[in-house]
Structure formats: structure tokens, C-alpha cells
Amino acid sequence: MANKEALRELQGRLAERLQEVRSLEHTTGWLAVECAGRPLLFPLAEAGEIFQPGALLEVPHVRPWFLGVANLRGALTGVIDLAGFLGLRERVPPAVREQARVVAFNPALEINAALLVDRLAGLRNPEQLVAVPPDGRPAPAFAGGCWRDSAGRLWQEVRLSMLPREERFLRIVDAG
């Protein structure tokens, strides 16, 4: 029970901090998350509200990474398992659901979707990270820069605004 309270407190502090950071005009920063052990960064300007995973209405004949539709603040929103979409796993393990969170897209992007992430890892700002030069391999349009933190951990930026431009993101129907 204490763990759930601690997680709720962390989520509340992150939501408050997210609002504070958004209110600062010239601030660049990221919401740090993990998906299947992979550290990822969402630009704060593109990330929206954070929710606990709740009841999902499953949708038949969709890809395994499209988890269903949720009612988020009165709006029906498609929920995507980001790790599944990225090919890091096939299904969300039940043990992951305890810490998992649903990150909505910023309403200004007008993308009626949210991403299930395994774990929130706080906020990051440019002073905490060092840019890593591209390795020359092709990357999808939604892949932003790579960053290294002081512990040597490599973080991949995911540009949420670019996800809908990825044809695979829009093709949720499982033709097989």
C-alpha cells in the first residue's frame, strides 16, 4: 500500500512540475519514461496529462500494440503500448501494469491518442544531458536526438508530434 501512495505522490509531483515547466516560456525539457527497459524522452511541449491505466475498451482486429480505447477526461482516446509499437515486446506483462502510466498527447497537437509507458522517470532538462551525435543509421521521423546523462545512460527522444506521420502508427487494423 505504501508503494501505491509513493507512486501517487510521485505522479502528483511530476504533474505539478510539468505544469510549472510548461509555464516557463523559453524552457526546453523532457518527460523521461521507460518502455521495456528503454529510456525515452518526450518533449514537454508535446506531452500532455499523465493518467493511471484504467479500464480499456478492447477493439477487435487491431494490432497487439493498440490496447484499446479509454475515456480520458471525457474524451475517447486510443491507447498504444509504446514498447509494443517500437517492437520491444509483443504484449504488456501483467507485472508492468502496476507502475505503468498513460501519457496523453498535448491537446494542442490534436492527436486523439495516448501512450502506455512502463514507468515514469522524472523530468530532464538540457543541463542534465549531453547530445550524442547521430550514428548514421536510418531512423524513423519520430526519433529525435540521443542524449547521455551523467550516469552514462543513453536516452532516445521520441517526438510525439511526428508519430502520426508514421504510416504504421495510423494502421492499427491487423490484416492478418
TrEMBL record:
Gene3D superfamilies: CheA-289, Domain 4. InterPro entries: CheW-like_dom_sf, CheW-lke_dom. Transmembrane segments: none annotated. Pfam families: CheW (PF01584). Signal peptide: none annotated. Residues 27-176 form the CheW-like domain. It comes from the Bacteria. This is Twitching motility protein PilI. It comes from Sphaerotilus uruguayifluvii.
